[in-house]
Amino acid sequence: MLVSTERTRLSGGKLFATLLAVAAVTLACKYSGVNQTTTGFAYLLTVLFIASAWGLTQTIVASVVAMLCYNFFFLPPIGKFTIADPQNWIALGAFLVTGIVAGQLSASVRRQASAAIRRQLELERLYSLGRSILLDSGDHPVPSWLARHVAEAFDLQAVALFDTHSGQTYMAGPEDLTFPPDILQRALSGEIERADRPDSRFAVIRLGTKPAGVLAFRGIVSDAAIDAICSLVAIGLERARTQEIETLAKAARQSEELKSTLLDAIAHEFKTPLTSIKAATTTVIAGNRLTGQDRELLSIVDEETDRLNNLVSDAIQMSRIEGGKFKLRRTRVSPNQVINTVTAQMRARLEDRPVENAIVTNLTDVYIDRDLIQLSLRQLVDNALKHAPGKSAIRLGAGIGDSDVQFWVSDDGPGITAPEAERVFERFYRGRSHRNAVPGSGIGLSVVREIARAHGGDAFVESSPGKGSRFIIKLPLTTEELR
Fold first, then answer.
1. Residues in contact with 307: Cβ distance below 8 Å, sequence separation at least 6, in sequence order
2. The CATH number of the domain covering residues in 331-482
3. What pTM was computed for the model?
4. Does domain 137-247 have CATH number 3.30.450.40?
5. By 3-state DSSP, what share of the chain in percent is helix, strand and coil, each rounded to 5?
6. What Å distances lie between residue 186 and 96, 156, 202, 203, CA to CA?
7. Where are the domains of the chain?
8. CA dihedral for 116, 118, 124, 129, sign (positive or negative)
9. pLDDT tens-digit readout, 397-446
């Protein structure tokens, strides 16, 4: 209402100034005694000036009033609205047409200049908004920040931004603006890209083909600027989500590193007393003062100390592998020797369970990290012990092909379905049927794959429900010269 009143006041002021300008020219020409031709040019210049300054409406008013004044005061018979000479009719008509055409041209130029100014202003505002988004530090709620900057950059009465990622609406500007439920639902479902209401406009923000949000605003903005604003807001939202993912990944890495560091420190603390226990039991057993029963009990302590020492060593290795802090230390070693060593190391865990070593004679030495491969095989044996029936056999084997060497561990357990076979090597994944019945953290098999891939190979499983499982570590053949 205030804007309409202001426009009416300005229009009335221009009309009064137009009439005053024509009256001034009439008085000046009447009392200066200039001829009709000079008077006509004076009126024409006045009309052209009004056309260039105030637009088409005032130009038409000036042309009509000037024609009437010219007729009444300067064309015979003077003092009457009649024209004696027919040629004067042509002059008056040309005068009126010239004034109207000039007014239209002036109004067109003014509209084009005004549109160019608006476009330039919008470009400057878009540049300012884009620069703010690119330089944003991201240490605040981004959707709320984007809504506020859009409102400030384009001087809008109200802005509302619905973010699909958070499911929340963020508002900015001096006025409140809410989303009509039907508009929001249709926009997110892809039925509409734009919607206009009497007091507000709505536009969908897209990241690729998916809606990332909906922008609503109240104010004057061109369609081209709306598209550009939506694109900039989409960039801001995508940048914020990328930063959020990077922050979460960084936190996860730091958590893994902290966990690995703590586990490494604790494991080393265990090493010191274990070494002392081992030294003491070995010394006592080597003496001749023990009875048969005492010697047997100390032998058990000695064996369990070795077992605990191996577990601590494995924990240290696994913590380093999880933290990515390990390097391969390749040496030439016989696959059969690796299998026999693992069987001996796991003897205490295997107890009375039958173990079958598939030893192939005349296997050539391979160039691998023996400690890490033995750690992998111990993890596979431990996995088989957890899932296979109590008295069923565990089988270990190795073989060399044309371009690779394979180590494997098989069991007669319940087997694995095809979907689970694709996931068992994922970190922390545990099968649905065993996650509550079998102890474990879901890390061992992921470590096996990490070690295999560090060698340039991979780990996989061959299994089917009810027929057991065969876990395979496949490593490419290499030589020391190729490392």
1. 348, 349
2. 3.30.565.10
3. 0.45
4. yes
5. 60, 15, 25
6. 54, 24, 11, 11
7. 2-123, 137-247, 250-322, 331-482
8. negative
9. 898 888 889 999 998 888 888 888 878 888 766 655 554 444 445 677 88
